Amino acid sequence: MFCALEVTWGNAADWAAAIGSIVAVIAAVWIADGQKRFARWQKDEAERAERQRHQSLINEVIRVTEQLRDEFARLATLGDLGGLQSFTADNWNNAERLRVRIRSLQSLATDYPRLFSEVGSILHNSYPDPTISSPSVVRLICRGMAGNLDQSLAELDDLLEQRRV
Fold first, then answer.
1. Number of folded domains in the chain?
2. Would 7 be classed as within a structural domain?
3. pTM for this entry
4. What is the pLDDT of residue 21?
5. In angstroms, how far apart are the furthest CA atoms of the chain?
6. Helical H segments across 81-134, by residue range
7. Range of the domain at 114
8. Is residue 10 part of a domain?
9. pLDDT at residue 93 above 90?
């Protein structure tokens, strides 16, 4: 006989199914949240690695540019001391090797337009004319290129500081 006021608690199987359903929903939510956290972590790690790559690239460009600036300063000092009387295109060889290194670094910066542009500016500001034969002109040009590279280094330092923020 059926009584409307009687409470029917069901059997153990019904209770196990209900509890299992609740646990399954909680587990599904927990797993989905874990996957979302993992995806966020992967994205953050990829961004951190990319920032680190850019910082390393900027540091290397700075290092080689400083060497190039020092080479031009050395040539200008050599001219001040009168050592450029027999100045030939061979005197540009060390500077040209450094320029080749900078050019190769520029090829690594294709996904970073501002650095690519800065490296292009460095290459433009450091192109010597090997046909110049006058020691006084060579001295002035080397001093000017060293000054231009100082400005480029300041821009690179600014760029590196922005990447750290």
1. 1
2. no
3. 0.69
4. 93
5. 123
6. 93-108, 113-125
7. 47-164
8. no
9. no
- Has residue 142 been placed in a domain? yes
Side chain identity at 161, as an amino acid letter?
E
Do 118 and 152 form a contact (C-beta atoms < 8 A)? yes
What span, in angstroms and rounded, lies between the C-alpha atoms of 145 and 148?
5
Contact call for residues 77 and 140 (beta carbons, < 8 A):
no
Residue 32 is predicted with a pLDDT of 93
Structure-token match 């996904």, residue found = 111
Axis crossing angle, helix 113-125 with helix 93-108, rounded to the nearest 10: 170
Both tokens of 10, joined, read: 């069901």
* pLDDT of 125 over the 80 cut: no
DSSP state of 133: -
Tokens coding 53: 């790559």
Tell me the pLDDT tens digit for each residue of 127-158.
766 566 666 777 777 888 888 888 888 888 88
Pair of tokens at residue 164: 């750290």
Please name which of 90, 76, 101, 70 lies closest in space to residue 130, comparing C-alpha atoms: 90
The pair of structure tokens assigned to 152 is 């480029």
User: What angle in degrees, to the nearest 10, is found between the helix axes of 135-164 and 113-125?
Assistant: 170
Average pLDDT, the chain: 81
3-state SS assignment for residue 11? coil
Summarize the confidence of residues 22-39 as an average pLDDT.
Answer: 94
122 falls within a domain: yes
